[in-house]
Specification:
Helix 7 (124-139) crosses helix 8 (151-163) and helix 10 packs antiparallel against helix 11. The protein has 2 domains: 2-173, Rossmann fold (3-Layer(aba) Sandwich), CATH 3.40.50.620; 186-279, Pantoate-beta-alanine ligase, C-terminal domain (Pantoate--beta-alanine Ligase, Chain: A,domain 2). A 6-stranded parallel β-sheet has the order 1-4-3-2-5-6, with helices on both faces. A 4-stranded antiparallel β-sheet has the order 8-7-9-10. The protein has helices spanning 7-19, 35-47, 65-70, 75-84, 95-98, 116-120, 124-139, 151-163, 193-198, 201-214, 219-233, 258-262, and strands spanning 2-4, 24-29, 50-55, 89-91, 143-147, 169-173, 237-245, 251-252, 264-272, 275-282. The two termini are 38 Å apart. By secondary structure, it is of the alpha/beta class.
Length: 285
Amino acid sequence: MRIVKSKRDLRALVSSWKADKQEVGVVMTMGALHEGHLSLVGAAKTDNDRVIATIFVNPKQFDNKADLDAYPVDTDADLKKLEDAGVDLVYLPQAEEVYPKGYSTTVAVGTMQDCLCGATRPGHMDGVTTVVSKLLIQTSPDRAYFGQKDFQQYLLIQRVASDLDLDVDVIGVPTVREGDHLALSSRNRRLSADQRAIAPTLYKVESTIADLIRQGEAVDHVLEWGRKVILDSGFDRIDYLEVRSEEDLELFSDVADRDNLLSGRIFVAAWLGNTRLIDNYPISR
């Protein structure tokens, strides 16, 4: 496994692969790797001749400096996991390689970013779409893989690739979960034992809401019930609990078109102490 830290070295190696007609997949991470990240690597290895992983803790997507400072970093462990998973190349840039002196461009999507995490974390989505755009350009992959736990991010990146005519397929990979259905996240390691026991409530509420909607219950009613259960379980606050379209994140409430509603997805973000957890669940599961 090769490790490179500069765009020049990255591009030279990728160009040699492309000259040899090899297809390239990329998995973008901020480190603190878990099985969810490695599932993306597995999907990329299945589809491509070569796999690149990037590790870059992107400062532009943190609206809270304390959250950035608390983000877990263990690069040596991450590199070992990627090597064991069969990654060919790790791109490990420093901040100045991604955002050189004088950098002043932002990639912002005009739709789908002002809701969910975009509404509660100012500047976060612009930070995500900007860094992903740059990394897609730098790595020049045929395919890029993103976990569906961050479903809004996945849709926004699809939109960026389409709107900017980037020659890459953006592929979503299903969420990987613990045995108790908690979605894998780098943030989970920040939970205390008591908080970790509470965290699976999000999945329980989502899956129950989906069942109730399929049975014909009113959306607003079951969402009200879900908010109460989440807070009663020990969560400190809820950023959102909503039903939205999987296509464009249109907000659904008590709409008459049940078929349209059944194609939606439940989205939730809630806080346990200083840790913010997100998840989503398809109604038509």
